[in-house]
Amino acid sequence: MIMIPESQKIFSIEVGEFPKIYITMTYPPAGILCGRSPADESYSGAALQLRGDQSDIIRFIKKVGAHNAKFEFNFHGSSFNRLLAKIGHSFAVALAGLDGIDYFLPSIILGTSSHSSYYIGGIREPEHELPSAHDIGIGVEETANGACLIVRTTLFNIGERRFPTYEVVCGQVTSDLDLIRSRIALAAQRYIS
Question: Distance (Å, rounded) from C-alpha 21 to C-alpha 104?
């Protein structure tokens, strides 16, 4: 359904005629990686962006005879964060296993924690952006809280356009760091290559 504001006219459009647009969320880095308190539940600096091929959007607006069009959408940040938590947690458990890691994300996945901004955020440095051929990666990094598993993921590649890379801090390593790194390397070699 499309609503053209100047005439308040609502009409249906074939799916193939609608411009290719998508909504992305850019986040500041996760609080745990920046020294913020878990009690700071804000995503100060987060931005919701509507992305798409501008010429495609202009062509569509001209075709429907609108001088301007109003696109309305709802963004459910807690659901989106739960999705990122599920992706990060499942990938980390699949590659690193359960033993020797104190996982942070189950309460976010279950919706019983409001601390998602502490564990889920955007990349800290441009070089952390995933290369276009990759949608997910995992690593162990030293943080102020000790060695942590960090999953980087992007959700979709749409041609040259893609979602931002998100960092999901999955858990703290509580046992031999070399053992955890070996598990990840072995699992990656077996299942990802």
Answer: 33
The total domain count for the chain is 1
Question: From CA 86, how far away is CA 119, in angstroms rounded?
Answer: 12
SS3 186: helix
Burial 80-110 (b: 16+ CB within 10 A, else e): bbbbbbebbbebbbebbeeebbebbbeebbe
pTM, two decimal places: 0.81
Distance CA 185, CA 190 (A): 9
Residue owning tokens 């790194």: 181
pLDDT at 157 over 70: no
The CA angle 149-43-126, to the nearest 5 degrees, is: 55
Question: Which two tokens mark 74?
Answer: 């709802």
Q: The domain containing residue 61 runs over which residues? A: 2-191
- pLDDT tens digits for range 54-69: 788 788 778 777 666 6
